[in-house]
Sequence to fold (692 residues):
Amino acid sequence: MAVPFQFPYLEKELSWLSFNERVLQEAADDTVPIIERVRFLGIYSSNQDEFFRVRVADVRRQILIDESKGGGQEARALLAEINSKVLTLQQKFDSIYLQLIHDLAKRNIFLVNEIQLSEQESLWLKRHFQDKIRRHIVPLIINDHTELTRYLNDGSTYLVTGIRNANAVTYCLIEVPNKKVPRFIELPPMKGNKKRKTIILLDNIIRHCLDDLLTGFFEFDAVECYSIKLTRDAEYNLSNEIELSMLEKMSSGLKQRLTAEPVSFVYDREMPQHMLEMLQGQLGIAGMDSMIPGGRYHCFKDFIGFPNPGRDYLEHPKIKAIRSSQFRQAANVFEAISKKDILLYYPYHAFNHVTEMLRQAAFDPAVRSIKINIYRVAKHSQILHSLVEAVKNGKDVSVVVELQARFDEEANIEWAKHLTDHGVRINFGIPSLKIHSKLMLVKRIENGRLVKYAHIGTGNFHEKTAKIYTDFALFTAHSEICDEVDNVFEFIEHSYKKFKFNHLLISPVDNRRKLYSLIDNEINNSINDKPASITLKLNNLVDTGLIKRLYDASRNGVKVRLIIRGMCSLLPGIPGLSENIQAISIVDRFLEHPRVMIFNNENDPKVFISSADWMSRNLDKRIEVGCPIYDEDLKTLVLKIIEQQFKDTTKARVIDRLQQNAYVKRGNRKKVRSQLAIYDQLLDYEKRMANR
Fold:
């Protein structure tokens, strides 16, 4: 039975805002350590910035496209809904922020502004400003010839200053130099009160020292100062000129982003009308642009790095990364993998097993070649350092660099140049397809024959994010899977070649078709009174084709369970359509990032991990790789991890038709926080493996 074309579907932008509301819930949760709550405000704000740069910008472009064809009403209505929800969330944000300031003060941590300083603190700050900060500030005078849109950096915080002399006002713009100076400054302890910890924002230091900054250049009776932040469209057009290399095209595209259209303008709601009107005129902000009245501070993403000047209990205790017993007991990584497939789950497992594999491959005399694809890497990447060392040792090293990894383009361009300079063969892939897979392949000579070892993951080769993102990484010497991984690299280099994949799910080659087939198999089993169920863990579920298939599965009696961290356009619990679909979302200290697909298959589960979310772009416009888990121990481990998340009674929220984000009701069940319980599960698994 086919689902009618007009089926319930929540616009992905509205669903995304519901996800970020779940992040905001963590900042409001008084069971979360206070410093972590402040940092969740930073995470929320960083997410919101990206939302405007990408999602809202896309809706704006759609309006322009539709209007050129005589339409645009639907996209305009969506933008109005977005703006309404954003304003509601902004009010919640401001309220939570004020509560957190109050709660910090209870713990002798004071986040003060410029009018709350003691005389001792004021003098210290004026000296600090002169010695450390003033050199980084050059005010921009705003007049009729100023092209303000050209000078505002995307996402930076600015202080708009009105210098009033009699009835005249001179406006100037001061960029808060938070990339050169810490955003938070801890003041020296006050005499007689050593327990008090006082922190001031860089913005307020500048406000406090405005007189020093302006005196001698302006005559003024009073100075007004209010903050703003502009967010721009993150998309850009790549030149089609044949003579330009991919690096040159990407560099040109990044320059376009600097002057792209503004999509969000956040301003201090206390800003006087004359200043706001001046800025609107200067920036050419139209009615459809998102103007968001906010609090005194912007660029809250810096709060991700909010310091802890107090005791350790004010933030999450660090967990000790688990070392794989299989890797630990073997002479080298290749011996370990050859004995049995290994599955790691970050950040519970140590990511340095990956860096160690590449370090050993870089000098192992038996290794002949290394292939890897890079989407995002750490600023000081040990992985890329090992690749350079491998070239020095005569290995054939090939790296696929994705230059269009959003917001990491500039870093990837520099890495590509660095690797090329050191003799690494660089491949920029297929211009029309973003490469999002997480693959590595090492070829080694053993007993006179070539043996392949593969890494297939759900997350990036990024040492830093592996400490805060949950992700699976499979290490295998399964010959057929390794051959297919090799063929993926060959496909990236020669996309005109045809390959058949019997094990891997490859976008855009066959992933969609195989997923449809797996769902249809469960539907057929249910129709024939056989066990049938589907369990999915994804970041995002918005692809209409797959949502239709899941609705169809539900209508035919297949039990569908979903763990969706972010966007979920499917609406569960609709009688006659999705009543057999249950969906939850988990937001906790680690960002839930892996993609896992489990199909009952008549009680013989087919389990896959994948780099691909269920979005049209991931299925049709990117190179993504899904991999089956064949090892029975590892399959059981994945099933137990997923089941543990469905038992969460602390951090799981229900995804429903009304987007209420209600926490899963505990009832008479014990309190379970799945991220902590999974750590214990993995410790137990490694102990059992060590004793085999």
About this structure: The longest helix spans residues 34-68. The chain is about 40% helix and 20% strand. The CA atoms of residues 537 and 687 lie 26 Å apart. The radius of gyration is 27 Å.
